[in-house]
Structure formats: C-alpha cells, structure tokens
Amino acid sequence: MLKISALIFVLCLIYSGAATPVSERASNHQANDCHSIHIFAARGSTEPYPGQQGVLINAICQKQSSCGYEDIGYPATFEDYCTSAAKGVSNGTSLITAYAKRCPDAKLVLTGYSQGAHVIGDILGGGGGNCPVGGLQPTNEALSPESMSGKQFVAAVLFGDVRHTAGQSYNIGTGADKNGIWPREGEQLVSLNRWESRLRSWCDEGDPVCAGGPDQSRHFAYFDTVINQAAEWIRTKV
Ligand SMILES: *[C@@H]1O[C@H](CO)[C@@H](O)[C@H](O)[C@H]1NC(C)=O
C-alpha cells in the first residue's frame, strides 16, 4: 500500500521546469541521415520533449562532429500509467531497431528519466505485468543482444527509475540499495542485467520514485547534479 500511495503522490506532481532547448548540433534527427552517435530519449511523465534530458543530450554531443538525438514518442501520462509506458516501449523498440538497421555504423545511446527510465528498462529487459497503480501492463520481449550488436548499442542511462531495483551493479547514487515503486524481479531482472556493463542507473535515496524516499524535490534534481558524471561515463563508451 505504501508503494501505491507513493506513486499516487508522485502522480499528482506536475512537472514545472522549463524545457531545455537542445543545441542545433544535437537537434532532432532528419529522416535519412545517420549520426556517428545517436541518442534515443524517453521523457519523464508530463514533460515536454525532450524535457530535462536536453541538458544531457547537449553534453553528450558537445565536441562531437556527428551526434544527434531522437525522442521516443509516447503519451508519458499519469493516467493509464502502465498503458502509457507500454506505448513507449513498443515505439522505442521500433525506432531503435529501425535506426540500427538503417545506420549500422552508428553508436546508440539510450536515456530515460522517471517514466522514461521505466520505458528504456523495459525495452532492454522486457516488461509488463501487474501495474502497481492497477491494471496490467502488456508484456514485451526484451531486445535481444544479437539484434543490437555490442558495437552499436554502447550505453544506456536511467534517472529516477520507477522500476529501480536495489543492489544492482549498475546502480549509482545514494539510493543504490533501495527499491523503486515497481522493482524488477525474475526474468525481467535477469534479462536487463545482460546489459550491465553498458547500463547506469542513478537514484537518490530521497527520491520517492526510485528509492521510496520522502523528498519529491529529489526526483527533479538529477539534471542539476549528475549530468556531468553521466555524460563523462557515456564519453568513455562512445
Ligand atoms: C513514435 O515516436 C516518434 C518519434 O518521436 C513519433 O513521431 C511517433 O508519432 C511515435 N509513434 C507512436 C505510435 O506513438
């Protein structure tokens, strides 16, 4: 019950930050070009595209000659939360698969915040099941490591993940040993962990979403505090 009330509590928050303009260089991709580094971003609930992750996108693309991003289009709503996340999973999987096929030399980076982190985690690990706010999220197969070669998919970063799971090797931050609202277990966890060397999940212990913490402001603070760290880690992977 505690978890459900935490989610409802968070669901009542409306994101109020300003949209981060993404620099020209990292602007949303054109239909037929291929970048050397291509980022897929899944926004947090109710955020504009690309939301707070714009800062990270700019930091990753800084000083790169061929780097761009694309939004994973999905509702990002609090209503029908798990249906919304499932739409992101299905659209993200199609977009990533299509880009990888069309641009086999591109290095792919995935980033997700809050509900968007849930989406990226489900794409990589498989998702679905009993949604903590009611109903069922349709299940999806995890992307197979064979479908996206190690050469292509280089890094995924998650911030304030709804499905944060305590004690995983890729967890970073003071909430690393805490569970989020809907932690992964069983096959979905095993499957996500296949990517562990290419995955980092930031969580602050105060964050109600990823750590069951008491301080909603911590959920909105990642992009002030860990951007440089995240961008630096990604640079070691591209
Ligand atoms: C998938 O995402 C793309 C890129 O953001 C968007 O143009 C498209 O409308 C989305 N499709 C669905 C079915 O949401």
Give the biggest beta sheet: 6 strands, parallel
Strand tally is 8
Beta-strand fraction estimate:
15-25%
Rg, nearest Å: 16 Å
CATH architecture: 3-Layer(aba) Sandwich
The residue ranges in which pLDDT falls below 50 over 5 or more consecutive positions are 8-19
The domain tally reads 1
Mean pLDDT: 89
Quickly name the level 1 CATH class.
Alpha Beta
Could you say which structural class the secondary elements and strand pairing correspond to? alpha/beta
- In CATH, the topology is named Rossmann fold
**Ligand species:** 2-acetamido-2-deoxy-beta-D-glucopyranose
Helix percentage range: 25-40%
Through-space gap between termini:
42 Å
Coarse morphology: globular
- Corresponding CATH superfamily: Alpha/Beta hydrolase fold, catalytic domain
Helix count equals 9
InterPro entries: AB_hydrolase_fold, Cutinase/axe
Keywords: Disulfide bond, Hydrolase, Signal
Pfam families: Cutinase
GO molecular function, one term: carboxylic ester hydrolase activity
